[in-house]
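Escalation from tier 1.

The customer reports that the assembly of two entities below gives different structure tokens on two consecutive runs. Tier 1 could not reproduce it. I'm attaching the input and our single run for tier 2 to review.
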Amino acid sequence: MLTLPSILRPTRRVHAHCDVPCGVYDPEQARIEAESCYRIIEKYHASTDEHFRQRCVVVKEARAEETKHHIDVMWHDYFKPEHVERYPDLHDVCWKASKAASKVKQSTDLEAAKELLGLIDRIDEMWKGTGGLGKTRLNGRPS
Amino acid sequence: MVALLGTAAGIGAGVAARRWLDVVEVHGNSMAPSLLPGDRLVVECRSFSLRAPRAGEVVLARDPREPGRELIKRVFAVSDAGDAADLRGDAPDESTDSREFGAVPLSAIRWRAALRYWPPQRAGLL
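Tier 1 run:
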């Protein structure tokens, strides 16, 4: 029997969906891992202890992989098309940063680590310029 | 006899209408402030059997990442080829939409949100 209440009772839910309503993002995560790589490479070159040098390589590769992951999170999850409109080189910078992280993983070249830090700083500028600091951290960065 | 026939026709029309009309309830915040959680809407599937969705229309779409879930979003643009739509929430900071999962094929978009009937103070065409 069709009654008014039965007609007006919703048959299903539709989702005005959001994965994570207040995602926390900060390129500082990538920066800390990349700084780790930088320092490890310095220590690698300063040492003559072969065992220590091997450990440097193993740890540096793991840190570089983490750096890459954190760059990808910024690139794929945080940045939105309107951010690309504002920073047309956004994709290029993130792509280069990802590549630089791979290079740091493969080599013990301090210059490569320096370049990676520079690119992460560019991501940081774009993050700040798109309101990241106030929007994606609970109370900005700890001072 | 006439009254009986009239009632039968009325029920028949109601059943027929029910095939292309439905009522749904909104969950989530991504369409705020236009649609709020708990809003009840009449949706219809007649329009999109005749034509493609247009930019600005509020539509229901099968979630490309979770087919069991039905999304409600606004059409931001229809692809040049006319086979997919870029869907966005009205609240960009609180919406997971085509900016993340890409354009949605029109075959996944059948229903158009036509009007809100609940809450009564915000009732009206969408």
